[in-house]
Amino acid sequence: MKTKGITVVERFIEKGILGLAAVFAVAFAAMQLLSEAPTTKAAGGEVNPGTVDTRLEEQTRRLKAAIEVEGLPAGVELMEASGEVGASFAELVETPTVGFRRVQVTEAAVDLGGVGGITLTAGAYNVPALPGPSQVFVETHFDAITIYDLELSSDDESILESRLGVTGSRGDIVWNTIGFQIPWDQMDAAMRDAPGDDREMPEAWYSGQIDVLDIVVERQQRVDGEWAPAVVLKTMPARWSLRDNLIEDGLSRKDRDAIVESLWLDRGQDRTPSPILQDILRPEFYATASDRWSAPLAPSAQEDDASKGDNWREIANWKRKLREAQKKANRRAASIEGLGGTPGEVDEPDRNERKPGQGSGPSGLGGGDRNRGSGGGSGRRESSGKRAAPGAGLSSGSGGFGAGTGTPEDPEKKKRQLAGLQKQYQDALKDVSKAQDRLRALGYDPSQAGAVELAGLADDLAVAWFHDLEVEPGAEYRYRVRFDVLNPFFARQLDLQEAQISLAKSMVMPTENSSWTDTVAVPGFSQFFLTGGQVDASKMQAEVFCFKEGRWWSHTYNRLQLGARIGDTQRKQNGDERVEIDFGTDWMPVDLEIDYSMGDEDIEAGQAAIVRLQHVSDHARPLLSRSVWLDGTSLSRDQFTQWVDEADALAEPESEDDEQDAPQGPPSGGGGGIGFGGSSGSSGGGRGDR
Fold first, then answer.
1. What is the Rg, in whole angstroms, of the alpha carbon atoms belonging to the chain?
2. Distance between CA atoms of 553 and 142, rounded to whole angstroms?
3. Alpha carbon distance 294, 330 (integer Å)
4. 688 found inside a domain
5. CA angle 309, 311, 315 (to 5 degrees)
6. Which pLDDT tens digit goes with each residue over 614-667?
7. Is 101 within a domain?
8. Do residues 378 and 156 touch, judged by C-beta distance below 8 A?
9. Which residues contact 166 (CB under 8 A, 6 or more apart)?
10. Domain for residue 98, yes or no?
């Protein structure tokens, strides 16, 4: 022991502590040897280290005997596995850690008892079968467009030029608008009551509201008498669409929630559609020369007996005016709703402080409105008819879906837009009321005209539409429509059996397809009607309508000879200038005979003639047979005549007083809609084409 530097007292203390430790160790060892073993109470008796093993063996034998006597609990049936249940332990040990064989586990049906009992069984879920639109209706429109004036992005400009078949300068276009009704209530009922004997879908999987994410329109073209394979129509450039986002890989529930949040500004009983949903279900057409496009009307289900009266022609004229006025009002109503307003409310309340296109949270649709800013998508055109700048687009990333940043919306500008639209809406309603009063005076019920007010998008059977930009004059088409709605099984792989895991891959669930529409014959830019024929003189009268420079023109030929081509080039007055219009068609009359089943007065007036026509260059085409009386009384001819009159009136120079009193609405005189019924309708287009 080292003692240098340690005092005598410290040395004695150290020795004392060591001695006490030695005494304590000896005493503890003696107590362990001389005292009884430690015991504790367990399993109804005392247990010590010497008896614990024996007691455990006894308790194990007792439990085993009890299990063998009592058996399974009442109501639990153990199903025996058929065949091999799994690999042996030796096989599993020798198997590599990658690629284990699955162990088949047989599940039991467990009856929990109670009133009626509850049985828990493993099984598949019933999959809803959602209905599509019950009817589809088509309208053909003519107009002129200047793509440079739309202020689109360069990509959207090139796409639109290609699809419309025009350059950036002004050009004549024709397109079809496909209308349909959205059966919200039927789809909701089908989602809640899926057919089948499997499990019902948990209520938590379905929010209680159908969310339409995309409209899928298929088109077939008749070529040489046969229907070509169906093609899916593309969405409109410079309009909101989720189609490209929905097909991306790796979508999550967070992405789903962000997309759903972007569709409605308010969810609940009174849902307010967002501008994004407006563009998906009710895309407004681009700014055109005459701005004549209007929302389509669903065909009336009521029987129309207007043709049974003596004044049927006047009734037909006012019916057309009523439908056009109602369509104009419907278009303004859709534009007002797209800006977050309510049709008919002049002073709009601040319904929601959130800007259109703006979401909440990092996964929502972020800052910037849909009309401006940067991003993948584009805005929609403003109510004035001039297309706004490209807007913020949807883009996907690790943080979910978001919109490009942009300039905040100008509330004063939006207020002015709503005020202008509300005035145009009220003016259109006045025209509706005027036409209704006139029809009642003629003894006709206006409700039979099919001029139905456009309901809100959230209302059952709301009318929506889709624009087909790639139609050819003279071609024949037919369409069918389905909806892609939010899939309640999306991203629920862990909740589904292996056989149904595929249901969780896609965010969309397709509805059933509608029936194919009747054949839609797109009129050509040149239309003709035979209005008279004298067999003795072999002379006919024809009226030709031609669409050029964004408006319809007409010319009447009173001395048309057999074998002569119908139509030629004529000079027409257009305001202060004269322009050359080509009225030439591809048809010539080759035969003329009398329909003696008609009255003597009609025969003398030249209205009983039947004219057969041949194509001037394609002699293999079948001959056309046209009735002069039917052509002369055609409602389509009346429609073309009205468009020509409107265009002529607009082309006349206006005085200063007229300019001051002129309404601040869009001009008319372009190519309005030529309607075609749905699966049960009939076409109402013009007679003849180039």
1. 40
2. 13
3. 7
4. no
5. 100
6. 999 888 888 888 888 888 878 788 888 888 887 887 776 655 554 444 444 444
7. no
8. yes
9. 145, 147, 172, 173
10. no
Question: Does residue 553 sit in the same domain as residue 514?
Answer: no
Token couple for 604: 């003398």
- Measured between alpha carbons, how far apart are the two ends of the chain, in Å? 126
Query: Is the same domain home to 542 and 484?
Result: no
Q: 69: number of CA atoms within 13 Å, CB side?
A: 6
pLDDT band at 222, cuts 50/70/90? Answer: very high
Choice between 248 and 408, residue whose per-residue pLDDT is larger: 248
Q: Express each pLDDT in 453-486 by its tens digit.
A: 788 888 888 999 999 999 999 899 999 999 999 9
Q: Are residues 497 and 565 in the same domain?
A: no
> Distance (Å, rounded) from C-alpha 100 to C-alpha 350?
62
Helix (H, G, I), strand (E, B) or coil at 160: helix
Q: What residues pair up with 529 in beta bridges, in sequence order?
A: 543
- Same domain, yes or no: 418 and 473: yes
- DSSP characters over 207-219: -SS--EEEEEEEE
The owner of tokens 């340690």 is 6
CB 477 within 8 A of CB 483: no
Bridge partners (DSSP) of residue 485 are 212, 509
CB neighbours (10 Å) of residue 678?
Answer: 25
Provide mean pLDDT across the span 70-89: 56
pLDDT for 131: 96
Find the domain containing 570 and state its range. 526-673
